[in-house]
Amino acid sequence: MKKKKEMTAVETQTLSSRDQRKKNKELTPFETLTFLSMGSFLVYVLLVPIILQLFISVDNYVKNSESVTLTSYHLVKSDDFLAIGFSRESELIVSQQTYYDVLYYHKKRNDLAWIDLSGDLDDKSLLVKINPEEFKKHQGTESDPIPVFNVAIEEEQFEWDDKSYRHNIKEHIIYEDILHAASYNTFLIYWMCISVVLGIVAFFLHMNRENKRRNAEKETKRSRHLL
Length: 227
Known about the structure:
Largest sheet: 5 strands, mixed
Number of helices: 6
Radius of gyration: 30 Å
Keywords: Membrane, Transmembrane, Transmembrane helix
Oligomer: single chain
Region (Disordered): 1-22
Transmembrane segments: 33-56, 187-205
Structural class: alpha+beta
């Protein structure tokens, strides 16, 4: 009878150990929240721009754009902007007291298709592609320049081919006009940092549970050996 009771105790401890292992395999609410946060971040970064591209057409923009000759201009500043999901280079120039922002959005990480507009070029002209609507949307000031997506120095040949030109326009519409690049990037950085912190905390909590499980298994084996 005593032996039967002892066996029952061991069986009970074994079942308890199995239940503990099963619970350890299940995600806690915190771990679920962590995976949802990280998964949503990846989906948002990867899918939102792709979905927006499906609904954006630049054909009318390109069709209505005009070539404008700037008889004199000089470079105000150059800027590189690296964000989550895209990167661009810009050169802010001024001509006849109107500011223009020449933009190039990279198609690849090592894309080097860029031009140098540095120096005062009062004796040279610059041909720029501009959609007239941009003059209505922007003031042409240093803080609100007219966006330019293709240029030709001295009216020779536009620097970027049609594919790059259209890519510049589409990226600008998605990230600047719709998502508001600066705010969008800041939002994603905070979201990413929060996800990373949650992931680190979830990892240590999981390791703590695993250590408890191993200790419980060792205790079960020790009890079996004693019996």
